[in-house]
Design a protein that fits this description.
mainly beta, six-stranded antiparallel β-barrel, 2 helices
Length: about 170
């Protein structure tokens, strides 16, 4: 109840460019001697289609001024980013920064009202066996909550220079 106002839904749109298929459903049998010739012909002469794609994700407010954290993969390639607050207000977001290695993105939203930020705990005090709760709003259907336990600290999964994960 205390943290739900800090949890947001992230909605992005982007333009996707693809080549249209002039002969939908037409396919040569595998290994056909004409398959490569016609594929090259069709690919060269196919018009490009532009379409709008949308995706959803979750994030949370970390400063009452409107700084929001989400995952980089949620906003990657986005032309437009919007944040939906717990009271269903829709605010345009500006990308401030991101780091693909840690899959983190920082957004800025502007609101007339002070926003409710999350408060951070100290992960050094976390112990194996502690209960943890994850709160999100990834599909825009309202908040979701799940619980688990810390099963390991300092996990190295070989993903790069920041390997020091908390496993739940």
């Amino acid at each position: 109840e205390k943290l739900m106002p800090s949890v947001v839904n992230i909605s992005t749109t982007q333009t996707v460019v693809s080549k249209s298929n002039p002969f939908p459903g037409f396919q040569f049998p595998p290994g056909s001697p004409f398959e490569e010739f016609f594929r090259e012909f069709f690919d060269r002469n196919r018009p490009q289609e532009h379409r709008r794609a949308t995706s959803l994700g979750s994030g949370f407010i970390i400063e009452k001024s409107g700084v929001v954290i989400t995952n980089n993969h949620v906003i990657q390639g986005a032309d437009e980013i919007k944040v939906i607050l717990h009271d269903n207000r829709l605010l345009k977001a500006e990308l401030i920064g991101r780091d693909a290695k840690t899959d983190i993105a920082v957004l800025k939203i502007n609101s007339q009202d002070d926003l409710t930020p999350v408060s951070f705990g100290n992960s050094d005090e976390l112990r194996v066996g502690d209960w943890v709760v994850a709160i999100g709003n990834p599909f825009g259907l309202g908040g979701s909550v799940t619980a688990g336990i810390v099963s390991a600290r300092g996990r190295n999964i070989g993903s790069g220079p920041y390997d020091d994960f908390i496993q739940t």
